[in-house]
Structure formats: structure tokens, C-alpha cells
Design a protein that fits this description.
Layout: H1 2-39, H2 41-49, H3 51-56, E1 59-67, H4 70-77, H5 89-101, H6 108-123, H7 145-154, E2 158-166, E3 169-170, H8 176-190, E4 197-200, H9 208-222, E5 228-231, H10 235-240, E6 246-252, E7 258-264, H11 269-280, H12 283-295
Parallel strand pairs: 4-5
Antiparallel strand pairs: 1-2, 2-3, 6-7
Helix pairs in contact: 1-6, 4-7, 8-9
């Protein structure tokens, strides 16, 4: 009888020890998140110090501890059967989403509150007409209560994740052109090396306005400390980036596909003509367009 009377106290002690161990696990996850922040310190410093990054690109970088699949893992363990807080497919998912949304996994207090609420939800039916529920009655066939508790308290579902946003979009939500632009920004502004940089067709998947408003300012800033070579089909880049030297390449199909090259500054009459021919479709076409612009 004495042994039975001691069970409630022992259970309380074991639960307390389990929570302490869970906090120790979470501390390791937080340490890993801190390592992520340390590794990406240059990115944050760049964003804070660069008007281009903050104002034009609206870059934002943060590291957080996020849930990577708790809901899927839980419902592999427990059934949507006839008892418990998570009874019913739609109702059960909605109930769990509410619990997940209420807690911040970045803090020790947040994970403690989450674990406490989860165990309470498993042991007590939180539906309006619910009563105390046995965890064993909710376990799927082939699973065990031990596996369920291990899955919850091990916190394998929590991972540090870095999120780089441009405006209100995360990196994975950006279009190929936007991702390419962002990558170029880092090469041009974050990378502080002074060795020459070769960029192949930066205008791909970008419209002229994006090139002019976002890409050109970065190129202009980077070329103050390093030499930049741009291979492009868009002469507009050479003009707006104020290229020190332009090399025009032309394939002569009639002369056995011979490549001809013309080089010089933008002010060079031959280079100037080549740029206008490619960009505007010859000088008369440019004059015609100019007159239309001025007429407005």
C-alpha cells in the first residue's frame, strides 16, 4: 500500500525530470541557432549599413527555431478516433494548429508552455463536452505511448532556420529573376574582395526597370573597389553603369563565322554607334523615338 501511495509523488518527480531534460535538449537547439546567427553576422551588418539593401531591396535576415513537421508526426502516432482533444480529422488538425500558433519555440519558456499544453491536451479532452482521456486509447495500432512521448519531448521537429526576405517574400518564394538579383547583390556588396568579378548576363529574367533601379546601383558601388566584367546582350547596362570600356562582339556568318571585336570607351564614335544600333535600332530610330518622347 505504501508503494501505491508513493506513485503520485514519483510520477510528479519523473515528469519534472522529463521537462528538465527537454529544456536541456532545447538549449542545444538554441545554441545551434546562435551559431547560425554568428555565421551570418556579416549579412546582418551589410543590411544595417547599406541603404541599398534596406531601402531598395528591403532585405531582412533572421534566424529562428521553427516547427518542421510536428503535426504530421503527431498524427502518425495518434488516431482521430472517438476520444481525445484531437478527435476528428478536421477538428483535430484545427485544434493542434491552434496550440502550435500559441507558442514561441525560440525561448525556453515557449517550449515549456508548449510541452505542458500538449500533455494536458492528450490527457484531458479539450472539446466542449470532453472528459479525461487515456493516452493509450488514442494511440494508433502498432505505436506505443513511449514512442509518442519520445516524439514530443525529443524535439526532433524543431530546427534552426535562417530566413532571408526581400520585401515580404522569403528566398524560396522569389522568382528566378529575383533570386538571381539577390545573389548578385551579395556578390557585389557583401563580398569585400578586390579581385576582378565576371558576371554573365545579369539581365536574364529581369526587366529594364529592375535592372536600372536595383542592379545598376549595386554595380556602381562595387566597381569603386574592384574591376567588374559584364557579359551582356543588353547595351543599356554598359550605358547606365558608365562602363570604362566596351567590347562589342559580332559574328560574321558570311566570313566562315568569324568573330569580330570592337573596343573603346562609350565616348568613342564607333562604340557609340554600335551601342545605339543595338539598343535603339540605329540612330534614325533613336531620333524618331526621341521626337515622340519630346512631343509628350
Amino acid at each position: 500500500m505504501d508503494n501505491l501511495n508513493a506513485v503520485p509523488q514519483q510520477l510528479t518527480e519523473y515528469r519534472a525530470r522529463r521537462l528538465i531534460k527537454a529544456k536541456e535538449i532545447h538549449a542545444v537547439i538554441r545554441q545551434l541557432a546562435d551559431k547560425y546567427r554568428e555565421l551570418y553576422t556579416p549579412v546582418n551588418q551589410f543590411i544595417e549599413k547599406s541603404p541599398l539593401a534596406k531601402e531598395k531591396f528591403q532585405l531582412n535576415f533572421e534566424v529562428g527555431i521553427v516547427d518542421t513537421g510536428f503535426q504530421e508526426g503527431l498524427f502518425e502516432m495518434i488516431s482521430h478516433g472517438v476520444v481525445g482533444t484531437f478527435c476528428g480529422v478536421e477538428e483535430g488538425h484545427k485544434m493542434l494548429k491552434g496550440i502550435l500558433a500559441r507558442h514561441d519555440f525560440n525561448t525556453e519558456g515557449g517550449i515549456e508552455a508548449f510541452l505542458t499544453e500538449m500533455i494536458d491536451a492528450l490527457e484531458n479532452d479539450k472539446r466542449p463536452d470532453g472528459k479525461r482521456a487515456k493516452v493509450s486509447d488514442q494511440i494508433r495500432k502498432g505505436k506505443s505511448s513511449l514512442e509518442l512521448y519520445d516524439a514530443i519531448f525529443s524535439q526532433d521537429y524543431l530546427k534552426p532556420r535562417y530566413a532571408l526576405r526581400m520585401g515580404d517574400k522569403e528566398l524560396h518564394q522569389l522568382s528566378p529573376g529575383e533570386r538571381g538579383t539577390l545573389l548578385l547583390v551579395f556578390y557585389l556588396l557583401v563580398e569585400k574582395d578586390d579581385i576582378p568579378l565576371v558576371i554573365d548576363q545579369p539581365e536574364e529574367n529581369l526587366d529594364n526597370q529592375t535592372v536600372y533601379e536595383l542592379l545598376v546601383p549595386c554595380i556602381k558601388e562595387a566597381k569603386q573597389r574592384r574591376q567588374i566584367f559584364i557579359v551582356t546582350h543588353n547595351p543599356n547596362l554598359a550605358v547606365v553603369c558608365d562602363a570604362a570600356q566596351v567590347i562589342c562582339a559580332e559574328l560574321d556568318k558570311k566570313d566562315n563565322y568569324r568573330m569580330n571585336y570592337l573596343s573603346g570607351a562609350i565616348e568613342n564614335p564607333k562604340i557609340n554607334k554600335a551601342i545605339v544600333d543595338v539598343l535603339e535600332g540605329t540612330m534614325p530610330a533613336f531620333d524618331n523615338r526621341e521626337s515622340k518622347y519630346l512631343a509628350r
